[in-house]
């Protein structure tokens, strides 16, 4: 059963290939049919498919990628309760850089620092300027529907790049004053 569990972690194309090979082995008569059929049933089971999907999702999340999700927030006078950074002018996606403690986004849950903002009320902000996203968020009436994807590693890399640029600017300013 140890090998069987390992097979469950193979990607879908690998599993399809294994199933094809099992069909060939079954036709050749080299292995007992009941064992081949049992292995085939496991590989084609909903359980094994769920494990493959979860493994792919976990790996994607560990690499900084996740499936998009929808977060709906009520628009109140106190604002939406989060800050964004990035945009086309900075050659980066737009990210949720901060969820304000006690703010609307914090109370509603569902939105977190590191979420990439993909759309606002059905309007894509991918590849857009920072100001366009701000305008869409401000223009929302009643509630705002956000499509986001959690990609914290990309945000961390972007923040590190911005910090390097800030440090270089500070050093440049210090040397120009000297």
UniProtKB/TrEMBL annotation:
Keywords: Cell junction, Cell membrane, Exocytosis, Membrane, Postsynaptic cell membrane, Protein transport, Signal, Synapse, Tight junction, Transport. Residues 70-152 form the PDZ domain. SUPFAM superfamilies: L27 domain (SSF101288), PDZ domain-like (SSF50156). GO terms for biological process: exocytosis; protein transport. Pfam families: L27, PDZ. It is a peripheral membrane protein. Residues 1-18 form the signal peptide. Residues 11-64 form the L27 domain. It is found in: Basolateral cell membrane; Cell junction, Tight junction; Postsynaptic density membrane. GO terms for cellular component: basolateral plasma membrane; bicellular tight junction; postsynaptic density membrane. Its main location: membrane. Belongs to the lin-7 family. This is Protein lin-7 homolog B. The gene is lin7b.
